[in-house]
UniProtKB/TrEMBL annotation, chains A, B, C, D:
InterPro entries: L-rhamnose_isomerase, Rhamnose_iso-rel, Rhamnose_isomerase, Xyl_isomerase-like_sf. Residues 369-381 have a biased composition (Basic and acidic residues). NCBIfam families: RhaI_grampos. Its EC number is 5.3.1.14. It comes from Tenggerimyces flavus. Pfam families: RhaA (PF06134). Gene3D superfamilies: Divalent-metal-dependent TIM barrel enzymes. It is an enzyme of class 5 (isomerase). This is L-rhamnose isomerase. The gene is rhaI. One of its GO terms (molecular function) is L-rhamnose isomerase activity. Keywords: Cytoplasm, Isomerase, Manganese, Metal-binding, Rhamnose metabolism. Residues 367-388 are annotated as: Disordered.
């Protein structure tokens, strides 16, 4: 078991990136319920993300979604972020919201559309150059809805070609993370449905390509921490998109549906030493708050990751390894459960106080008056949302 | 095994209702890809449904969605339908697309919003009175996204109250079908998640309330034909919303994902004599065509139901029952598989010819010039879609 | 929020029944790994159950499985249990391990086999009369493996007849709980696959028939606490078979796979006042320890239920209801999560000390020398197991 | 579309291997229902497999399971098979039925047990040398039941070591297929849970290691044909274990649960030219007949694969590719469905007649008197089964 000081140090050094799109309006195919005080542009999203960092101390970057967060001057946006105490993080290309992409983007049967999609990927690396972002975060909505709609095999060939083109555009300081998704918006076959597909492509591409694990993108019953442990072993875990789900949608607050699963994932991270910055694993949130207010939901989510991490750090590694070595099934399980059953909130309050923060980030948020202020400031104009 | 004449007679008498909303634009939360020639109002949706009936001969009614299909004069819309050879079918209230319904409609914690939703249900029965529709088709998007968001129990009490209010408004010629849905758009708990919940409410309400089985609304691995057989035994199968899905979305063309399952469902229907009009089981489609053109997709869907029905009618009931009585596992299975493996398309061509139709409905559709005509006629104005 | 005294009182009054079969050897279809010190008969199973009660204080009864636990003199077995401080609990008929039951028991196409199965059910009520057990706990392995193997509908008729026969045999102090199971050992259709099927049969039978919820018997993604809340509303929740599973097998220690789910279930129980003995909900364990030693695994399981119960009792009901009334999504969720995140182990140590027990049941078990003693005492003869 | 002659030629050349263990008794953890006429040893299993080949013409080899099929003289067993018209196929090591393997075989924390397991793998290659088998078919029951029971990562290291040892033992004419399984008998984590894990290990090992796809070993909703197409693209599809399942067990007759899925899999095989012997894809059955008589069930299974193959061969490739190129969603789907909806049984009757076989294999089996003969001949002695 790590010393309390080591645990605290790890928790203070944690870096959880929040996504710009979570600050905008979102919903289901049935309805988007608009909220008040929603940012109208990338600058205001940065402001919200900065506030989340201000009260939690561990969310010092914001991921961007292009073109949703397109600005004229990325250096200026980057400076705005820095002024607010955060940086611009991963760049997420969007190749699913134009009419051209109806039958896919990089896997589209039409070569002209594929070329357009690839151009957008390269454009996003241009933006990375401008912002200093190190991660190109790739998710494709590509797939097919019916058997026979397109060739599964041909689509893989097209995918490989596009990934190669994007890969070749990366500088040595940049890397690309390839996300997989079990289903949606394609309903018969998605072109990167599982970690194996992403892994195989990344292995072919080289060291700058790694797998991105979105915790909401798996078949029912999938053991996600196994995947995490396996990818770490292979040196191919690039990072996470954290969120949670009970059944099929992947956008609830991380840790809300299965906090034990989140703990088990962080346990594998800690066991592999991958919390360390040198391991280069990106911890990013990717979730949309359809009903709950967005900024406090994001604060809560960051806290949920912190709590799972703290519990993982508290596992008594010696006791665990001894039990495992001895084939003591109940003992090994108990070592893990003891940590999970610990209430780490007092520890995290201490960590925050030592960082000069309010021990209660949600109370600090409420006291900040941010919600009231933006409700007034942002009442005119077009609230950001998917596609806006 | 029924005689060929009896099989043909049953196929000619089949009645499959198509849904108005399937003729409008639809999509996923990621993107709605607009199509050309989309109806702009209820009248034009009726026109499209009438064409589906014209070429298939077995789709003589259209379900309406209120308020999407609101018109000033329902008698006039009804007359328009009749002129085109079809009737207005089930009325589907919509209590999920107004901002008030963010936390639910009939289960909302706010009594004023519940009252508003109940009023809409009653308004829909008024419309039934005007259109002569006999079915009030109830689906609620109600549910919660997080444990603790609301009381599961209190929501059931509110639901029961609303169902009772709608039930009391029905005339003796009218009935209400209560649909259940496993998940979406609520992600932690839907208020009617399974057939058991719907059944229990309907049993309390009385004979005019029955369960509606949407084939896309079940947990993975659920044996839907068991539910169908069970509800028929209890006299509580009101009807179907047909569609299909591979994993989680429920809007693919019926029979596209698992034609064997559709056959098994129709097999239970045939075995229970429930294809007979007297059984009062409504066979309705409920699907949205996000990528494929809507009218031919609907024609294909109707044909898929016909083919499954024809196969079910061809099961050798004597051989099946003998094998079942004898505990002949392979024999019983073979009786069912023999029918499923039969190519019933020639039989259905004959049926259509005997009905005076083109044996190939899709060819007839293409020859009709409908697609080209509506592309031109409907190019101005607002295409119908969810919420329009 | 209940006072600490009230919480403690509730925890002291808790009654968790352990199953006799969990003390015998068990395994998968691939292999049963025998353990040492396994009981050889019902008396020795009672001894093990008594020890679990001795160290936990809240497991004062043992469920029996007939014929596995058949004895010549049930009064004597009952006296043995009483001498050890426990009572004989639910009686579980076994109609799945004789060759006759290959195609089912009460649903078998052969009337002679059905009659035999019904006789066994009645025999089990005779045993209840002899032991004073109040619960007949019914689970049927019945079902079919292939479409067409048997008639789904006819099997329901046979099931209804058998349930009625057993029901009619019950005295007024006895009740029957009807368990459902999603799959296994039947692979195409089980005859009671879900709570709805069990509920519909119980509703027909009357007040002495109630639904038994086995927490491992649901489709992936099923919201079990919804079912619990719904059945409580209908007055039809008879009790639980607690265990847990990650994907498909239902025999891991309760709380091991998803402690948050167990907490949510207990939260619904507490909210409905169903922890109270007057509510007549039976809390029974049903799990098999294939790898881990059985007695400590059972102690751990009892503790897991206690911890989930303690957390559920700690939910601040006023704060929860206020948030729910106000539509405060994050607030309602927080009220629930605050309780779940609390470490209740210190509270339970206090509860145990106040009951005169060792605060650490597993330590007390180890100190008792039971494992060593039975390893020696029981080394000859046939260890109990499924079918033995 | 291939010419009828080409289709027939492909069907005549098909090679489907049946598994020795399917001819022995099997069951669930609840009960093994013994059948009559069950083989008592490897020679009699060969006899049954030979009969399946005799009536179908396309099942000319039998897979062996060691130690279940251990014999003193493999050359003699091989000669016996040849005399009966078949050959000995894949060798399947069994490292799950000894008490030592309780916590795993090649992943066991105890190095001595790992060494023992590796020795068994090598012994199986010795047997391959003796029988001329070219395939070492590896499935491990390894895994853990509880979080913390063992280190996920350490187990992968041990697995890699064992796979390497087996790999190094192979001659150039031999290869090893690495099977994955989603769950069971381990319930928290299996050590090779998915194709990605198997693929990554095989990629490290080299060309003689390939992935084995068991059609019953996936999470719900998994698109198996995608995996097949992907592995073919990577040159890593070693073969199949065919069977089917509705929910979670993987031992129903192939094609029984979802014949459309089987067709889609064979469609990918045909599209990739992998039906050709040069593609080196092994088509093996792996299923257990718990209720149905084993030899006719196996015949039926072989016929099901034939029918799916025939349908796949009938897909109009030109029409399909044109529709795919044009983005014609309905057209592409129709090309596939047209083939699936074709009744290929007449074509297969012709194929059999041209091979000099009875067009109806099940009728030929019945006429053969095999069932009656073996019932008498094998009534004494110990029927083969798992572990026997």
């Amino acid at each position: 078991m790590a010393s309390t000081d080591a645990v605290k140090a790890a928790l203070k050094a944690q870096h959880i990136e929040t996504p710009s799109w979570a600050y905008g309006n979102s919903g289901t195919r049935f309805k988007v319920f608009a909220q008040e005080g929603i940012p109208r542009n990338a600058y205001e999203k940065v402001d919200d993300a900065a506030l989340v960092n201000e009260v939690t101390g561990v969310a010092p970057s914001i991921a961007l979604h292009i073109p949703w967060d397109k600005v004229d001057d990325y250096a200026d946006l980057s400076k705005h972020a820095n002024d607010k105490g955060i940086t611009l993080g991963a760049i997420n290309p969007n190749v699913f919201q134009e009419d051209d992409y109806k039958l896919g983007s990089v896997c589209n049967p039409d070569p002209a559309i594929r070329a357009k999609a690839i151009d957008h990927l390269k454009e996003c690396v241009d933006i990375m150059d401008a912002t200093g972002s190190e991660i190109l975060s790739l998710w494709f909505a590509d797939g097919i809805n019916y058997p026979g709609q397109d060739s599964l095999r041909a689509r893989q060939d097209r995918l490989a070609e596009a990934l190669q083109a994007a890969y070749d555009r990366l500088s040595d300081e940049q890397r690309m993370l390839v996300e997989y998704k079990f289903f949606e918006p394609a309903f018969y076959a998605t072109d990167i449905p599982d970690w194996g597909t992403s892994y195989a492509h990344c292995a072919t591409l080289g060291d700058k390509a790694q797998v991105l694990v979105d915790t909401g993108h798996h078949a029912p019953g999938t053991n996600i921490e196994f995947i995490v442990a396996f990818l770490l072993r292979q040196g191919k875990l690039g990072g996470f998109h954290f969120n949670s789900r009970f059944y099929a949608d992947d956008d609830l607050m991380v840790g809300a549906a299965d906090p034990f699963q989140l703990f088990r994932i962080m346990h594998e991270i800690v066991r592999a030493g991958a919390l360390d910055k040198a391991a280069n694993v990106a911890f990013m949130l990717d979730q949309c708050h359809n009903l709950e207010p967005k900024v406090p939901a994001m604060i809560r989510s960051v806290m949920n990751v912190q709590e799972a991490t703290a519990k993982a750090l508290l596992v008594d590694a010696d006791a665990l390894e001894e039990a495992q070595r001895d084939g003591d099934v109940l003992g090994g399980n108990a070592a893990v459960m003891d940590a999970f059953n610990t209430d780490v909130r007092p520890l995290l309050r201490e960590v925050r106080e030592e960082l000069g923060l309010d021990p209660d980030p949600l109370a600090a948020y409420k006291r900040s008056g941010h919600a009231e202020r933006v409700r007034e400031e942002r009442k005119d104009g077009q609230a950001a949302g998917w596609g806006a």
